[in-house]
Amino acid sequence: RGIDTVLLRLQLSAVNYPAYRVVLLASESPYNWTRENLKPETVAGEKFLSIDLPAQSLKRDDYQIKVSGSLEGGNYEEVGRYRFRVVE
Q1: Of 7, 52, 59, 77, which residue is the least packed, with the fewest Cβ within 10 Å?
Q2: Residue 63: phi, psi to the nearest 5?
């Protein structure tokens, strides 16, 4: 309650892509949230993606964030999945 945005910082593997796409998947809902052309940031030698999620879209559920790296020709290659749970 009272929170508009949830900031997630996802640590990336050593593989470098010029840009990334993230897709938020909920286990109990058909709702998908996607952002493309995200640029990684480097903090203390580690690469991260920072993602601002609208808090009202996060209901009590189990979620996955699928991260894909951008390839030539507009295709993407999956590079990782991150799981989390919203309990309140």
Answers
A1: 7
A2: -125, 155
